[in-house]
């Protein structure tokens, strides 16, 4: 009954009394929350406070790599597989020592307070150690996704004028070495792993150091004595380069008080966050969602075990068959995810259900429907959990008590699936790098879905562009005033950011994202198509792994590019008597027709209008990953790049026009 009452309560109200808002959570109606722990107004103070409280407890964990193997596929492709051991843990005190030594070593190498320093590295313990060392000594940290292209990295490093860069041996050898000569101000490159780096052909004035060597430099008596310049709340903490869905990457300037304010709101949405929790870190730490989630975990004594999308579960691509993925070993209680990953989990489980016997499948379907009804009414189904969903829950280690999803809208179907099969609430976050990730997060007890999904409904609720205001709104873009028009300060001194998203406020104070301003296309006959809405609906199609809808105002119909699900598509092809390599299957005209038929069925179930349904399709044998440059690191579609990539197919599908 308590759960039900909480799910039905009013969540937010307009502070002005008018429909246009602004709207604010009823829990902090009189004033916005800015600090979670009173007096701890900078990131170094939060970490020091955590070390004092949790000194001997586990803080950051990394799995040992026991061996690497090459697995040759029937097609001749070679897959690299890992066999991993247990997690090795650094306590809070040990992390504190590493932070102290590394920060001292960077200062000894000439890094100055208030001067930017860059990190270009995968998500791992050394990333967090570097960040904390920089926060402590007031070195503003410039962050780049590990998947950003070489030119984008060179552009960002030159724009910020950094002299010191922290990276990994692998990224140094595969991506950075090609552009080092284009970054004249760079003097020191520090790589975080223990490997021998071949520096042949590197620019003459550039020095390379291992992280260990910099720490050893830091403990020399003359370096330990150097005074630490501590940051102020208004000092720059991070310049976060967004991979952006258009144009060159932009560096968002985030000060200490932005992050402490953003985290305050996030932490209040995770009940009971503390030393009994284990968080699995695998999303890019250069993404504001992951960075603020991990800093929050460290603040509250929750341990972080590091992972990667390729080693997350027993079925992950780099895990050798028969050995354990990271979730099985770590058994996390908290997890952040982007919809792309949750959709993938959903499809994997449902394809396993299809392979069950008739009786098993019937039982699963009945149990699923029953529990879904119970959740909608505000209750649980313990018997179904024990008999049916225990095995599914084990895929993520069996102990996940809450998931946070961000980066893009999560479909209602996938959110419901996670609620039912993994027996845990999924909190959807909405925010941007420009708002330090924090905008809105669903309450744990709120069991409605689809509030974040782009889904146009003409209801009499207030609608318009979403503006986010508060102490979490960042300071604009680094040396890029021309792009700062989206930020403004009102007459009360409150800072605001114009998101470019269109929202609708429900009577209970919940926000629904209904569209993206630039995703609306007016067709030749005058109808408006929301590309995001079309994609969101059609992603429910089991044969589709990813989809991009496309339309322009000179045409009267929508077309689409689809990355098909290889397993489903191959089965369908075999049934139709089509055999061949994956590329041949994808380019077969009959398969395009089959996929269009599937699209029509799903579109009808999702009540898409006739003019919204794609009339033609191009099937892509290659998946869209951040490495291909067709999606961002949060797996959002880069529409401009996708359009350019498929330009000749667009011309083909629009009859040469």
Please tell me about this protein's structure.
The chain is α/β, with parallel strands linked by helices. The protein has 3 domains: 2-31 and 338-516, Roll (Luciferase, domain 3), CATH 2.30.38.10; 43-306, ANL, N-terminal domain (Rossmann fold, 3-Layer(aba) Sandwich), CATH 3.40.50.12780; 523-653, ANL, C-terminal domain (GMP Synthetase, Chain A, domain 3, 2-Layer Sandwich). Helices cover 34% and strands 21% of the residues. The strands form 6 sheets. An 8-stranded mixed sheet has the order 4-3-13-12-14-15-16-17.
Furnish the topology, listing elements before pairings.
Blueprint: H1 2-8, E1 12-14, E2 23-25, H2 43-54, E3 58-72, E4 78-91, H3 92-108, E5 117-120, H4 125-137, E6 141-144, H5 150-160, E7 164-167, H6 169-176, E8 188-191, E9 207-210, H7 211-218, H8 221-224, E10 236-242, E11 250-255, H9 256-267, E12 278-281, H10 288-299, E13 303-306, H11 326-330, E14 334-337, H12 339-354, H13 358-376, H14 382-393, E15 402-405, H15 412-421, E16 426-430, E17 440-441, E18 463-469, E19 487-489, E20 495-505, E21 511-516, E22 520-522, E23 528-530, H16 531-538, E24 544-550, E25 559-564, H17 566-575, H18 582-587, H19 589-605, E26 616-619, H20 639-645, H21 647-653
Parallel strand pairs: 3-13, 5-6, 5-7, 6-10, 7-8, 8-9, 12-13, 12-14, 14-15, 15-16, 25-26
Antiparallel strand pairs: 1-2, 3-4, 10-11, 16-17, 18-20, 19-20, 20-21, 22-23, 24-25
Helix pairs in contact: 2-4, 3-4, 3-7, 9-10, 12-15, 13-15
Enzyme class: ligase
Region (Disordered): 1-22
GO molecular function: arachidonate-CoA ligase activity
């Amino acid at each position: 009954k308590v759960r039900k009452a909480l799910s039905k309560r009013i969540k937010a109200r307009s502070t002005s009394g008018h429909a246009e808002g602004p709207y604010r959570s009823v829990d902090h109606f009189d004033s916005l929350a800015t600090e979670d722990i009173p007096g701890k107004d900078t990131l170094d103070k939060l970490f020091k406070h955590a070390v004092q409280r949790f000194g001997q407890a586990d803080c950051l964990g990394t799995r040992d790599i026991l061996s690497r193997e090459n697995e040759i596929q029937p097609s001749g492709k070679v897959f690299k597989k890992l066999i991993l051991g247990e997690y090795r843990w650094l306590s809070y005190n040990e992390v504190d020592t590493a932070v102290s030594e590394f920060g001292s070593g960077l200062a000894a190498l000439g890094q100055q307070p208030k001067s930017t320093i860059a990190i270009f590295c995968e998500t791992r313990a050394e990333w967090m150690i570097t960040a904390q060392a920089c926060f402590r000594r007031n070195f503003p940290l410039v962050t780049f996704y590990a998947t950003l292209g070489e030119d984008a990295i060179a552009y960002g490093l030159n724009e910020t004028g950094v002299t010191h860069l922290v990276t990994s041996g692998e990224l140094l050898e595969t991506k950075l070495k090609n552009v080092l000569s284009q970054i004249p101000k760079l003097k020191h490159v520090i790589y975080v792993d223990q490997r021998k780096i071949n520096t042949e052909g590197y620019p003459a004035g550039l020095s390379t150091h291992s992280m260990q060597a910099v720490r050893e430099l830091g403990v020399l008596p003359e370096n330990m004595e150097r005074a630490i310049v501590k940051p102020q709340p208004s000092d720059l903490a991070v310049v976060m380069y967004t991979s952006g869905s258009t144009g060159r990457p932009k560096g968002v300037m985030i000060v200490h008080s932005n992050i402490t304010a953003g985290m305050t709101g996030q932490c209040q949405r995770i009940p009971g966050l503390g030393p009994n929790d284990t968080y699995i870190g695998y999303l890019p730490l250069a993404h504001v969602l992951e960075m603020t989630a991990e800093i929050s975990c460290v603040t509250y004594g929750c341990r972080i075990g590091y992972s990667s999308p390729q080693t997350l579960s027993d079925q992950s691509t780099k895990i050798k068959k028969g050995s354990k993925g990271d979730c099985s070993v770590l058994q996390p209680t908290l997890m952040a995810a982007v919809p792309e990953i949750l959709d993938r989990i959903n499809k994997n489980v449902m394809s396993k259900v299809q392979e069950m016997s008739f009786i098993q499948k019937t039982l699963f379907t009945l149990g699923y429907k029953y529990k879904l009804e119970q959740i909608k009414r505000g209750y649980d189904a313990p018997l179904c959990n024990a008999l049916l969903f225990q095995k599914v829950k084990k895929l993520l280690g069996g102990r996940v008590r809450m998931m946070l999803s961000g980066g893009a809208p999560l479909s209602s179907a996938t959110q419901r699936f996670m609620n039912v099969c993994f027996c845990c609430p999924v909190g959807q976050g909405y925010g941007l790098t420009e708002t330090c990730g924090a905008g809105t997060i669903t309450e744990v007890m709120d069991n409605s879905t689809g509030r974040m999904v782009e889904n146009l409904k003409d209801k009499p609720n207030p609608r318009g562009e979403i503006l986010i205001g508060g102490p979490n709104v960042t300071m604009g873009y680094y040396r890029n005033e021309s792009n700062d028009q989206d930020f403004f300060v009102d007459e009360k001194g409150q800072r605001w950011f114009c998101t470019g998203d269109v929202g609708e406020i429900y009577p209970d104070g919940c926000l629904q994202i209904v569209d993206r301003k630039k995703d609306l296309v007016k067709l030749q006959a005058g109808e408006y198509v929301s590309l995001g809405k079309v994609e969101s609906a059609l992603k429910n199609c089991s044969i589709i792994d990813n989809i991009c809808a496309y339309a322009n105002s000179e045409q009267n119909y929508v077309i689409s590019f689809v990355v098909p699900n290889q397993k489903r598509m191959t089965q369908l092809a075999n049934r139709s008597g089509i055999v061949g390599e994956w590329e041949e299957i994808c380019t077969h005209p009959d398969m395009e027709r089959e996929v269009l038929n599937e699209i029509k069925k799903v579109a009808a179930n999702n009540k898409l209008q006739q003019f919204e349904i794609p009339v033609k399709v191009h099937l892509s044998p290659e998946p869209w990953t951040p490495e291909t440059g067709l999606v961002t690191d949060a797996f959002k579609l880069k529409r401009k790049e996708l359009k350019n990539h498929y330009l000749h197919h667009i011309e083909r599908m629009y009859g040469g026009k």
